[in-house]
Design a protein that fits this description.
This protein is about 20% helix and about 30% strand. The protein is α/β, with parallel strands linked by helices and about 120 residues long.
Length: about 120
């Protein structure tokens, strides 16, 4: 019988945990964890999933699609309207790389720490 595991947390390295947590909190509406601080901040989902942001000295942002500094990980977010979501996230401080492999189906953005994430059309 295989081990039963439930994903309970995703942690992202960054230079400024509070700033990155604030970006994702504004983008998703998730609740900030009450014990967030300058070294580790978090957001909690209703289903119990925790998204953490961990301070790393000398953090180097991923370069996408260049692999000089690999993307290491990324998050996908399902949205009803790609254009509307992209506009709102850019207003919040996201950036949009020039390379977009399939803009009709998904958009690649980078968060304020330079980490790529995708918006995908909710089916």
């Amino acid at each position: 019988m295989p081990l039963q595991m439930k994903l309970c947390a995703i942690t992202l390295d960054c230079a400024d945990p509070l700033a990155l947590a604030a970006f994702y909190q504004q983008a998703t509406g998730l609740e900030p964890h009450p014990k967030s601080d300058v070294n580790f901040a978090g957001l909690t989902c209703e289903d119990g999933l925790f998204i953490g942001f961990q301070r790393v000295d000398d953090y180097r942002a991923p370069r996408w699609p260049d692999q000089t500094v690999p993307q290491q990980s990324h998050l996908d977010f399902a949205v009803d309207d790609l254009d509307e979501a992209e506009t709102r996230l850019l207003e919040l401080g996201a950036s949009k790389p020039d390379h977009q492999p399939n803009e009709d189906r998904w958009r690649v953005l980078t968060d304020p720490a330079g980490r790529p994430f995708c918006l995908v059309r909710d089916r």
